[in-house]
Design a protein that fits this description.
With 93 residues, the chain is mainly alpha-helical. It is built from four helices and no strands.
Length: 93
């Protein structure tokens, strides 16, 4: 049996590239949320943060960082979390 060193290396590099792309997507969602806040499109910002939380959970098994951002923005805006969740469900389908 021969070991496929090149195949194993390529497979690992592909996984690293995929993870890096996922982290860029996560940061993109957070940056998008920040832009929406600046444009006063708060529900859109919260939807972006929910997407970021889902991705953060996929990557780390935890979504604490984006969860804190969501909680802070919801509190600052004084809106009900149910309303945010409904908007997120509508836009993600």
């Amino acid at each position: 049996m021969t070991l496929d060193w090149a195949g194993a290396r390529n497979s690992l590099l592909s996984e690293e590239a995929k993870q890096r792309a996922d982290w860029y997507r996560l940061h993109g969602h957070v940056a998008g949320a920040q832009q929406h806040v600046r444009s006063r499109r708060h529900l859109d910002a919260l939807v972006e943060l929910h997407h970021a939380a889902d991705l953060e959970y996929e990557l780390t098994g935890d979504s604490e960082s984006t969860g804190r951002l969501i909680a802070a923005l919801v509190a600052e805006l004084g809106i009900e979390h149910e309303r945010v969740h409904e908007a997120w469900m509508r836009r993600s389908s």
